[in-house]
């Protein structure tokens, strides 16, 4: 499409920008139908070379600019570019070297030559726009076919900054001119609808922000500052990093922007005391900011640099080390360019006597002016000074990175052109299988081959994916002190985006030197890590990285972020740092078990003693009158009752749990059955007063034994059914007191347990009623009274036992039951046998039948 028609369509879109931008490159005739284009202003290229195929180059040869006064009363002067960048000048020479190598190659583009037209963008989008418009024209502006025919420019190598590349790419898009950037890494360029002709030989920033996020997490830097330039590169990079950090432990302390139109006061407001600062900016924007930062004498900041400035040689001087030493960041992959060092030394004022940029190079490296006619105020020098390796800003060729990208970009165009020239008619990729016309190659035809390009250079494979991106690979670079006190760039690892997730980052930590010349990894946190045994408590209204430390609750331990419950059989130690086995507790022979054991043994021994007294005095009246056989049965049952309380002491086992309840229930049932039998005998003996009553024949010794046996047998049957259906068993109670494991016996069947207790209670109640009825029978020793008292005590003990047992915690339930057994046993023993022993041992004169019957002579 003719350029005149395209410029006419774009007139209303860009003429306002051109006329109001400082020193626009071109304006057009007053009417859109004009046949001739008139050059209104000039934007001279820095370097020009003729060739069969011409490519453009746009480089940030200056990193600062002064905006001209615009009062709209006169034509504004051009933007004044300041701050010559020797590093970018090296990139320009790399492009020139690559073109010369291709032109001298017999294998690549034989019988054809490449030309170039290189412009300075001053690292500013507006100047980059002017360069893009100028690069669309021919080699010589005087006789250039500006307004007709195809564009003489087949491709553009550039730009450096993403903001400039966006402007340039949008201007080139209508002309379908492919653009290969060597340093624009903004993720925004992956949108093929907006940037269909954009390619790059530098990885996409999506990979860089992923690498930086992994680096921050790797070194546990949870409190970081973000600093960016005022352009799309910084904006998209920060947005991408924030996305990557979502869900991680890293918090952003602040986000600040270096103003595009630099202002010292604003820069001083940005400077913060944050320990770790991530910077997405170009070296041109960073230079004045860092100088102000150095003037404040702020040290100890750990800088994390993006690829845009991590390899900037302008910061390698010794004056920068106290402030920038230890900087770590991700640099683009380095390569080798064999002839670059020799080629750079061929650039001197004698060879380029009229090139202003060469004069600025000399002024930057030597501080002198090789061109006496120029207007700068530097001392005059011969221009024959020798370029040395110490001039690292320009001569650093040991590990070229951006220059290597420029080199690859030029070769990518050359290989694409070479493949285009090899096209065989009838087998071409275009309409009707046609090939491009060698005499009139269109840029979009070159783009097709550029998309398919695949070649090797210095052992590295170069190609582009469908989005125009290249292989994601970074070197991890650390700024360390060199032997001369300057800054040296040391590789300490790599990031390979082609590897599986989690394996991309490889760091040699022992080789890193951190800020302040420290070998220890700096700490960057909002709040220090919580000590063991505590957890984080986020402060209201603050990021999650700012927190207070709260001790963990009992039963929990902390991993310094949150408190976690110990396993069921474990509990936290005093410091809440570890789970230890829970204390196992049961009714043991301790402060509680020993007294119960002593009481049980004393009770059994006392019962045995009474048994001996009764046996020794078995022929006395009081023993015989009170049915000696039943008394011995009762004493035997009480001995078993005292001893069965011992089963409740000790670690519960399956057998002990079954024995303790059944033994207790059967022995007490036996005891109460004996008392019941005695009560019936007493009641029958004193109620048979009429002559001829022979009621005692029903309560003879055999009948008494049958009563005892049958009453006890009922309890035995209940216990047998209990053991068969749901026997008691030991359990580990961890719910009542969570810090302990209480070993106790489960009754198995609550119904059976309360049945045996209910049966004993039924026997006791029956015995109490019968004894109560016989309490006023005549005689000096009415045993019915004592049976009544014993049953009252027995009933009171077991009525108090029920609520105490239900509410008793853990192993205390066994102690309550054991205590109830002992208390009721002592009640029966003392009520039934203490009065008799008193008469036998202390009042033997009353141990006569007459006295007992109340018939003694007064």
From TrEMBL:
Residues 1-17 form the signal peptide. The chain crosses the membrane at residues 592-616, 628-650, 662-686, 706-724, 751-774, 786-806, 818-841. It holds the Pfam family 7tm_3. One of its GO terms (molecular function) is G protein-coupled receptor activity. It is a multi-pass membrane protein. InterPro entries: ANF_lig-bd_rcpt, GPCR_3, GPCR_3_9-Cys_dom, GPCR_3_9-Cys_sf, GPCR_3_C, GPCR_3_Ca_sens_rcpt-rel, GPCR_3_CS, GPCR_3_vmron_rcpt_2. Keywords: Cell membrane, G-protein coupled receptor, Glycoprotein, Membrane, Receptor, Signal, Transducer, Transmembrane, Transmembrane helix. This is Extracellular calcium-sensing receptor-like. The lineage of its organism: Eukaryota, Metazoa, Chordata, Craniata, Vertebrata.
């Amino acid at each position: 499409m003719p350029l005149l028609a395209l410029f006419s369509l774009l007139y209303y879109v860009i003429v306002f920008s051109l006329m109001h931008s400082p020193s626009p490159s071109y304006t057009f005739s007053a009417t859109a139908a004009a046949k001739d284009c008139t050059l209104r202003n000039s934007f001279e290229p820095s370097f020009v070379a003729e060739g069969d195929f011409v490519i453009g180059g746009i480089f940030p040869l200056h990193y600062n600019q002064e905006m001209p006064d615009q009062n709209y009363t006169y034509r504004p002067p051009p933007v004044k570019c300041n701050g010559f960048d020797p590093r970018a000048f090296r990139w320009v020479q790399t492009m020139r070297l690559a073109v010369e190598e291709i032109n001298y190659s017999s294998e690549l583009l034989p019988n054809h030559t490449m030309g170039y037209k290189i412009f300075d963008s001053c690292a500013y989008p507006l100047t980059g726009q002017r360069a893009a418009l100028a690069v669309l024209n021919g080699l010589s502006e005087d006789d250039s076919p500006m307004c007709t025919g195809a564009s003489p420019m087949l491709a553009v190598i550039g730009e450096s900054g993403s903001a400039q590349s966006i402007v340039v790419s949008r201007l080139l898009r209508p002309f379908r001119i492919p653009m290969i950037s060597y340093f624009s890494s903004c993720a925004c360029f992956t949108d093929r609808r907006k940037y269909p002709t954009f390619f790059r030989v530098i990885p996409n920033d999506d990979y860089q922000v992923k690498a930086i996020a992994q680096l921050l997490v790797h070194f546990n830097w949870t409190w970081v500052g973000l600093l960016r330039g005022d352009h799309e590169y910084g904006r998209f990079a920060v947005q991408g990093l924030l996305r990557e950090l979502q869900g991680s432990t890293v918090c952003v302390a602040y986000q600040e922007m270096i103003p595009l139109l630099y202002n010292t006061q604003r820069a001083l407001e940005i400077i913060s005391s944050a320990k770790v600062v991530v910077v997405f900016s170009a070296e041109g924007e960073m230079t004045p900011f860092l100088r102000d930062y150095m003037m404040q004498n702020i040290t100890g900041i750990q800088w994390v640099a993006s690829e845009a400035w991590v390899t900037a040689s302008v910061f390698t001087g010794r004056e920068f080390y106290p402030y920038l030493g230890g900087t770590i960041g991700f640099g683009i992959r380095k390569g080798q360019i064999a002839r670059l060092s020799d080629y750079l030394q061929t650039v001197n004022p004698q060879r380029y006597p009229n090139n202003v940029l060469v004069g600025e190079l000399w002024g930057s490296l030597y501080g002198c002016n090789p061109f006496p006619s120029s207007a700068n105020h530097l001392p005059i020098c011969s221009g024959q000074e020798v370029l040395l390796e110490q001039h690292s800003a320009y001569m650093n060729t040991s590990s070229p990175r951006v220059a290597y990208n420029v080199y690859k970009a030029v070769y990518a165009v050359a290989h694409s052109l070479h493949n285009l020239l090899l096209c065989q008619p009838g087998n071409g990729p275009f309409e009707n299988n046609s090939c491009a016309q060698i005499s009139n190659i269109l840029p979009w035809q070159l783009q097709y081959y550029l998309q398919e390009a695949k070649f090797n250079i210095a052992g590295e494979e170069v190609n582009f994916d469908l989005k125009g991106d290249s292989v994601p690979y970074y070197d991890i670079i650390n700024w360390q002190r060199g032997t001369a006190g300057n800054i040296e760039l040391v590789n300490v690892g790599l990031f390979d985006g082609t590897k599986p997730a989690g394996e991309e980052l490889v760091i040699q930590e022992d080789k890193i030197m951190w800020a302040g010349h420290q070998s220890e990894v700096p700490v960057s946190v909002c709040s220090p890590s919580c000590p063991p045994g505590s957890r984080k408590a986020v402060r209201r209204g603050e990021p999650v990285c700012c927190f207070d430390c709260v001790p963990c609750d009992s039963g929990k331990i902390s991993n310094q972020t949150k408190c976690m419950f110990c396993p069921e059989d474990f509990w936290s130690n005093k410091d809440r740092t570890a789970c230890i086995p829970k204390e196992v507790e049961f009714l043991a022979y301790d402060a509680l078990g020993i007294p119960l054991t002593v009481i049980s043994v004393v009770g059994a021994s006392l019962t045995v003693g009474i048994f001996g007294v009764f046996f020794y005095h078995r022929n006395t009246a009081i023993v015989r009158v009170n049915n000696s056989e039943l008394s011995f049965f009762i004493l035997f049952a009480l001995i078993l009752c005292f001893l069965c309380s011992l089963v409740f002491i000790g670690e519960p086992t399956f057998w002990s749990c079954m024995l303790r309840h059944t033994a207790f229930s059967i022995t007490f049932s036996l005891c109460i059955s004996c008392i019941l039998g005695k009560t019936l005998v007493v009641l029958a003996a004193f109620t048979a007063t009429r002559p001829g009553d022979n009621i005692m024949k029903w309560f003879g010794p055999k009948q008494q034994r049958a009563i005892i046996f049958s009453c006890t047998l009922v309890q035995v049957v209940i216990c047998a059914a209990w053991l068969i259906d749901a026997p008691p068993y030991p359990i580990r109670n961890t719910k009542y007191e969570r810090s302990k494991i209480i070993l106790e016996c489960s009754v198995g069947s609550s119904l059976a347990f309360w049945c045996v207790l209910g049966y004993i209670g039924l026997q006791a109640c029956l015995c109490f009623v019968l004894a109560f009825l016989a309490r006023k029978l005549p005689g000096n020793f009415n045993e019915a009274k004592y049976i009544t008292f014993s049953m009252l005590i027995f009933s009171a003990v077991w009525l108090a036992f029920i609520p105490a047992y239900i509410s008793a915690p853990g192993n205390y339930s066994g102690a309550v039951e054991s205590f109830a057994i002992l208390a009721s046993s002592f009640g029966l023993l003392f009520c039934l046998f203490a009065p008799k022993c008193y008469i036998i041992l202390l009042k033997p004169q009353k141990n006569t039948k007459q006295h007992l019957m109340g018939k003694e002579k007064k």
